[in-house]
Amino acid sequence: MDDEVNKQISAEQILKEVYERRKVVKPSTKVDILDLEELHEYQRRKRSEYETYLKRNRLDMGQWIRYAKFEVEQHDMRRARSIFERALLVDNGYIPLWIRYIDTELKSKFINHARNLLDRAINTLPRVDKLWYKYLLMEESLGNISIVRSLFTKWTSLEPHPNAWDSFVAFEVRQENFENARDVYSRYVLVHPMVSTWRKWVQFETTYGDVDTVRKVYSLAVDTLASFPDKEREDDLISLIISFATWESAQQEYERCRALYDIAIEKWPQRDELRNSLVHFEKKFGNIISAEESVIHKRKRSYEERLRESPRDYDTWWLYLDLVQAYFQPQVLETLKKSVSSNEPTASVKNIAWKQYIYLWIRLLTFVELEMSNIECCRGLYKRLVDHLIPHKQFTFSKVWLMYANFEIRQGNIDTARKILGRSLGTCPKVKTFRGYIELEIKLKQFDRVRKIYEKFLEFNPLKVDTWVNYAELEENLGDEDRCRAIYDLAISNADAIGFSKDSMIFLMQRSIEFETDEEEFGRARQLFDKYIQMNENLPQLWITYALYESSNPSEGQLNSLRENLIDDDDELNFEATDENIVRAREVFERALKHFKRIDHKENRAVIYEAYKSFEDNHGSDEDRQAIGKRMPRLIREQGPNAIEQESYEFPDDEHDNSKEPNVSKFLALAKKWNESQQA
Questions:
Q1: Between 398 and which of 47, 375, 432, 547 could a Cys-Cys bridge form, CB atoms 3.0 to 4.6 Å apart?
Q2: Nearest to 55, CA basis, from 86, 85, 93, 79
Q3: Which pTM was predicted?
């Protein structure tokens, strides 16, 4: 056991031995041959080694090549050829073997052997470009031009890779035989009908040909490629056309260039690059008109693209129709029909999309009637729209019904128009439809029908105060004051039941007062004003208006007196404000002052005082003006909450009242001031 331990070698020892071995120089394996017999022995031994190895590994082509190389080094070409031929029998598809065999013959300057060998090689492996190139290089180096040309002809007959054709063309160019080069290209484009091939030919003609030959090649290329319905080549073909057009513009053949673009756009209207290139050309070489036309076509194409992606983009449809109607008149009708066909909105509620869609229909209907004068077609379109497209159970469009009715009126079909509007009110009543029907009957002077429609209208929507007013004004214009008054009275007396808003009620009262004033029923007007005031007691302007009304309208006694002195009932009543008018006006002002004093609204009291003073300045005596002057409020500044200075008013009338009850007034003032501070 101890001996085994002692025999163990450490890692350090192993590394040391390896390092020492590295320093040992191996003796040279070079064999010095001193005589011919030793040479023969050496050759015999090496051949025996090669043969023995190849018997076991005959597919090792590298060893065959090394064996042949050995014989070449021994200057024994016969043996070397024999070895190469034996190797070819084993594998004649091994390209490096052919190359080494050919190079060996060439290095040894056995040209005929090499030529024969190359013939065998290209026949055995016709798709190996390297063999062809080697054969061609050798013959061209030897100056055998005819042989090179025949070899190229033979090679290209096999329809090889484009590189072979390019080499053939380059060879003919080196020989300056340009006609032969053109012949090569004519066959080249048949074998490889690609845009890149045609571009090479164009480039060749650009360098070695003239304008006519370049144009001929371009034209032939476009005509040939366009005959192939190959979508994959479409992009390349369009780029070739653009290149052709660009070349024509460089030759200052602008009409030819424009014609190329027009033909291409007609064939491929979807391609934006053609449009863009045309626009660029027109901007650079065309006139203003042609440039604008190009831009218009580009816009048209852009709209069409957007509509294909989104057929319910009604804004784009509208812009597209504007463009077509302005520049493409023959396409207007077709485009209008396309805009409404199968493009109705999918939503089941009335929204902006439905409104836009209906306006497209309106545009179509207007065009068919006014521009085409096709009445029957227009009537059919109206029926289709009303009967089938608009979902009247969910919503309707008053404008369509009214347009339909007016269309029939223009054709002289009054009864048909009434039936259309009646159907509309029965199926889907709308405020606009009622108003349109009323306007129609008013134009036809069928006032009994108008009254019936107004009655239906008020039953449908009594909250529309302007409907009541319009109905009343109709009766007023017809001279039926009793009907007019009855309408106003009905609306005012049932205001609570109907549910009028405050603003609606004010408007109704104003119109009613104006009517009674026009009818010289001033007593009725005053009664309405009193109701009006009760509804809006806190509006100082209303009190002022009422007061001025009293000063400007006669009393019943004045009215009777003035009427007795009139010669003709049609004469206008003229009178000056009397003491009675002034007294009535002062009573209104005083009522207003008491009201605003009661609710303690100083600003509105001050407004009333200012109007009262202005009234007395115009109508009162000196005493009256002095009296109101003494009552005018004084503007004061007092300390408010948070030490903020505030403006307020002092009223002499209040001081007079305070003198009677100073303690109570002072208490109320203090209470008010405390309340304001709490609110702040």
A1: 432
A2: 86
A3: 0.49
